[in-house]
Structure formats: structure tokens, C-alpha cells
Amino acid sequence: MRRSHVAGVKRIYVFSNIVISKRLLAFLVVASLLNLGLIYMILLSKLSSPGTSQESIFFVFVVGLYRVLMLNYATTIAREVKSSEIQLYLAHTLRRLEYVATALIAIGLLPLITQLAPYLAFLGVIEPSLLLRGETLSLVPLLLVDFTICASIYTLVASRGRDTLLVIIGVVMALLSILITLLSIFMVAYGSGILLTIGYLGSLITGILAPYTYSVAYNLYAHPPYPYQPQNPDFYTLPSPTTMSIISLTTSIFVLVATILWFKRRDV
Predict the structure, then answer these.
(1) Residues 6+ apart with CB under 8 A from 190
(2) Which of 131, 144, 175, 263 is the least crowded, having the fewest Cβ atoms under 10 Å away?
(3) 8 Å CB contact between 94 and 8
């Protein structure tokens, strides 16, 4: 049993390298540009007005762009399934569960590491004490949950070979992170009537699909400088970022289980 697990991990490692190497150069070029832009904007914000709110907004924007970048490998996997190229991998002892695990590594884990590692290294160079502040420590689990929900949805669609639908969903997921979640929470904080209702329902949905942006927006409106406190008491009835992150992670698990069950039964 133990040898079987070790062999499975080795197969996942080998196949992950194969998948990642297909578009590695394009991925690294775009990711490097995004990371350099993020670091540049953070430097400007620290020089102009030291604080963490601007830094969080920059991160929201970059996370949204990373959701588009994650399509780099998601569409590759979708096309492999669509063209039946996947049969070549499954014919060489690669199990379907291992294929799904490989997809998660390429779609979600690699982009997460690519975004976090340069940022944390940058903080460690300019001021090591920043690595131990609360905002930095909470950033890692928040981004992990955010990338997991996105990667699980991409993996589900990619495993069905729906590359066109995948691109559409990717654009929607990016907009959820960059714009829609922020707008929904703003409507809860300052809207009225139907706008308040739409904003509240939208915040509940987008909080699951974009938990990092939800956390940033919630904290910005929950602790603003006077006199910019939310006008609606309903804002304070929204679930906390921690609660939404737990719901988001639970949703990711359900999506992944559904993907595995469906993919095992799929005739490829």
C-alpha cells in the first residue's frame, strides 16, 4: 500500500513537470511582469503614504489578473481532454485521480507560489519585520483559499474539455475579484432599497467565489476613517471574512469531489 502511494506521488510529480513545461516560458514572463508591477506599486504607496490599505487594493488587482493567468494551464488540460490526448497519459499507468491532482498543481498551486514567493522575498529584503505582521500572516491562508476555489472550478470545467466555456468563466472570475465583489459590498454599505438587496446577495455569492477580495473590501468598510462609516446597519450582518473563507474552502472541496467522481466515470 505504501509503495503504491509513493509510486502515485512520483507519477504526479513527473506528469506535473510535463504539463507545466508546455507553457512555462509564457507563464513565467507574464507572472514576472505582474509581480514586478505589484512590487513597484507597493513601493510607491510606501513612499507616498505608508499603510496597508493601498497595498491590499494592489493585491486585489493582481489576484484578479492571476485568475486570468491560471487559464494558461487550465485551457491546456481542457484541450487535452477534448482532443483525447489524455488517453496517452492514462495508458501509461497514470490514474484519473492523479490526473486531477496534477491539474490542481498546474492550475492553482504553481500560480499561488509564483505570486507569493517574490512578494514575501521582497518584504524580507526591505524590512524583515513586515513578514511577522498580522496582515502578512493572514495573507497566505486567504490567498490559498482564493486560489483553491478558482482552481477547483477551472479543474471541473477543464476535465469536461470545455475550453471555450473555461475562458468565459475565467474572465468572470477575474471580474469578480477586481470589480464585482468590491461593488457589491459598497452597495451593502451605502446603498438603499433594491440596490441594498442586490448588493447583499451579491456579496454572499462573491464572498465564496472571491474570498480574498471580500476580506479586503469588508475590512476597508468595517474600519474606515471618520466620517466614512457604512450608512447601513445591514453591512454589519454580513458574514465575517473568516466565515466566508471557510464556506469558500468547503465549496472547493465539494467541487473537487464532484470533479473526481465525474472524471472517474467519464469515458475518455
Answers:
(1) 230, 231, 232
(2) 131
(3) no
Measure the CA angle with vertex 1, ends 265 and 3; round to 5°: 105
User: Among positive and negative, which fits the CA dihedral 196, 169, 171, 54?
Assistant: positive
**In the numeric block, which cell numbers belong to residue 230?**
457604512
As for how many domains the chain has, the answer is 1
DSSP character for 1? -
Q: CB within 8 A of 108, min separation 6: which ones?
A: 70, 147, 148, 150, 151, 152, 154, 155
Render the burial of 237-264: b for 16+ CB within 10 Å, e for the rest.
ebbebeebbebbbebbeebbeebbeebe
Tens digits of per-residue pLDDT, 186-221? 899 888 889 999 999 999 999 999 999 999 999 888
Domain hosting 6: range is 2-265
As given in the structure block, the three cell numbers for residue 100 are: 486531477
Q: How many other CB atoms are found less than 10 A from the CB of residue 200?
A: 19
List, for residues 143-178, the tens digit of each pLDDT value. 999 999 999 999 999 988 899 999 999 999 999 999
**Terminal CA-CA length for the chain:** 27
**162 is written with which cell numbers?**
470545455
Sign of CA dihedral 34, 81, 257, 206: positive
